[in-house]
Amino acid sequence: MATQATVAPVGVTSPQGGSRTIPAPANPPTAATANPAQLTPAQLKAKAKADKAARRAQVKETKAVVAAADAAKTTADAKGGKGKGKQDGPQSQSKTGPQHRGSTSGRRPSILVVEKDVRSGIPECFSHIPMAKRIPTAHAHKDVHPAVLVIGQQMATFAIKDSIARLEATLLAFRKVIESYETPKGNSLSRHFVPHVLNPQIEYLTECRPMCYSMGNAIRLLKAKVNDFDIDTPEEEAKEGLLETIDLFINERITLAEFVIARNAAKQINDGDVILTYGRHRLVEKTFLLARENGRVFDVSIIDDPYDRGGQELARSLQQVGIRVFYSPNLGGLRANVERATNVLLGTEAIFANGSLHAAAGTADIAVAATNASKKVIVLCETINFDRERVSVDALTYNEIDPEQNTSDSFRLLFDTTRDKYITGVITEFESGTGNSPAQAILALLRKQEDPTVIA
Q1: 267-450 has which CATH code?
Q2: Any idea which fold 133-257 has?
Q3: Per 3-state DSSP, what percentage of the chain is helix, strand, and coil (rounded to 5)?
Q4: Run of H or E residues at 249
Q5: Could you report the per-residue pLDDT of 56-65, keeping only the tens digit for each?
Q6: Residues 241-295: tens digit of each pLDDT
Q7: What distance in Å separates the CA atoms of residue 317 and residue 327, rounded to the nearest whole number?
């Protein structure tokens, strides 16, 4: 006589307490329902497979019921509700902490980790201001060169933070990109290099940290050089031209410009002067060292950025060459330092088309206080840091959020804007008398630099 196998209902204890009965799934059809002794080997194998499938279906249904109960409990807890019953036995939670429910597979349940949004504490009105962030190399575009990956990480962590240092590092990385580039068959360098090779490098660097103005100017010049090549220009000739352009740019617009600016600024330091500066800027430091080398005897008053502390390094550097230094760790001593100074020497990140200064946060306070005290405010800046297209009258249009000083309660801006009326003059590498020009004259300087026949 044939027998029919059945599966008993399964009892599952829900997280709310009590037990719930899950009906067993119907038996799937088997190869035969006769006595197992009467089945052939093929029929026995089919029957075993069917029984295994039935058991799997039962386990899945049990898991679905338990998951639905857990979700209901989580929703109730989120709304502030309390459980309406005690759980009995080993599944109850102790008062000292929650216990994990064992899984049917014997493995611990996975824990969902939600990454914290670093911009969650920034108000909506400041949401347009960018912030540097580390981009995992695994998430970078496949065409990003290893040298550019390294530079991007260094910029994101502020290991390279000065605008000219970032510019030089970027150009040297692009040099390696050009050296390793090979034009695909059927393409030309003038049409393929910028969209398919150069742009992915630029996009990655911009994601790591917003591009500084000198980088933007240099990249535009490099792209213009690529577009100047004829479509039939041999690859080696074009690559050699690009490498030569980068080398010439670094020599003239960075190395030589730095020397000329420091030389022109050092000429304006006289014996007995007390020069006030803010933080540590590469051009200002080089100016002080060159003036001391030329035999000038003067003092330096340093007001430091309380977050960066670069002024401490500048003070040590100047003391080593015999320059007397007055050091203030923050803006608390601003008035006393301004009264003691004969003039003010400041560095900057960029100068906008309307003559406004884009510099480290705190620079505007120095310039305003010095102007109100009738002190000269001289700014040192390379022409590659001039922005001829944008204007700025406040610090909220173009800025960055400091990732190291960004919490759920507050955040800090890296830069501020100093209006041109608080700047006495700008010293650039462009030879114009003493090299000291009004801040409003940057457009005329750029035009004359590009075409020496133009009268500024």
Answers
A1: 3.40.50.10470
A2: Four Helix Bundle (Hemerythrin (Met), subunit A) (1.20.120)
A3: 45, 10, 40
A4: helix 235-249
A5: 777 677 666 6
A6: 999 999 999 999 999 999 999 999 999 999 999 999 999 999 999 999 999 999 9
A7: 13
